[in-house]
């Protein structure tokens, strides 16, 4: 049994291609069943997010599994296969396992170390499991991938330091207000993406009221509805400054929107209360000298970018530690998988030895005539001891060789030398030829 992956992501395909291959939660069950019913597919999981669509297939022939994965995606998106080929990557067993572990750990994400992908990996597996399209090997692989993702975040804390400008603004705000944003009021000036995201993050962290102001009042109303806030007209801005604790500004204006004198008047109306400004605009919206006023903290885009840069360096250090964890976990998975491939051979060998032993004991008892129960026990014990001692070194050495490219050769040799039945010892549903054997070909 082999594991292959076929897919594309934000590095290999533009959004217009990715959206053609996006599976909705409602379309996934039927897609999984169609793929599972394809000839040669023993099990499958589909991971579909805004940044990637990947199909993982358990199959008995690696090349056939990759081919069926490609064909399925071509049929699904109705794209010319030669065109789609430019965006797809295909991964053999070892590379697909390593890739999945890296995805779960946030090492293959657009934002290094982001944590949302781990829940997406878990949801993809749960969908395939409940739909009935996984098998024993995929179950173990995905459960281990989820554990790898958790281990990376626990041991490296790769997701601790944000690398988003909007979220960096939130972290700075939490520092200014000693980690407690409960009951704080946010004033958002502008209706752009970055200020909107920052406002949403701040609200998630406990800020109570969001005020939105924009040159176009209609757009301010639209944004206020989206973030459950209140729209105010731009010419009423100074009236609302004293009510705000955090002001986020990101407009396209060519001049300052907020001046020092306005802020000084606002501070006089809120004595003893700190005021924080986050100026994400270029050119800047807030007069720089505002930051010189007592009780005011002013951060511009350079301050936020420096936070992001510092945090990115921290994440990159954590990523190096995470890569070592992935390598360790990949080896562990393949040790388990390789042992699984020799289990049928060991089982078949023991079954044959048991059959021979039982037949020979029966023949010996017939020749010896009447034996006491004690004598029969002694003869049976002797036969057991001989069989077990003969098999002991064979089994131990086969298990040791299992994780190496020699493992499948030993298993094949034992099948030939002992004339083991093809149907014996296959309760795990795997072929005797292991992925370790294929590594020499890839």
Automatic annotation (TrEMBL):
GO terms for molecular function: glutamyl-tRNA reductase activity; NADP binding. NADP(+) binds at residues 190-195. InterPro entries: 4pyrrol_synth_GluRdtase (IPR000343), 4pyrrol_synth_GluRdtase_dimer (IPR015896), 4pyrrol_synth_GluRdtase_N (IPR015895), GluRdtase_dimer_dom_sf (IPR036453), GluRdtase_N_sf (IPR036343), NAD(P)-bd_dom_sf (IPR036291), Shikm_DH/Glu-tRNA_Rdtase (IPR006151). It catalyses: (S)-4-amino-5-oxopentanoate + tRNA(Glu) + NADP(+) = L-glutamyl-tRNA(Glu) + NADPH + H(+). The record marks 99 as: Important for activity. SUPFAM superfamilies: Glutamyl tRNA-reductase catalytic, N-terminal domain, Glutamyl tRNA-reductase dimerization domain, NAD(P)-binding Rossmann-fold domains. It holds the Pfam family GlutR_dimer. Keywords: NADP, Oxidoreductase, Porphyrin biosynthesis. Catalyzes the NADPH-dependent reduction of glutamyl-tRNA(Glu) to glutamate 1-semialdehyde (GSA). This is Glutamyl-tRNA reductase. It comes from Neomoorella humiferrea. The gene is hemA.
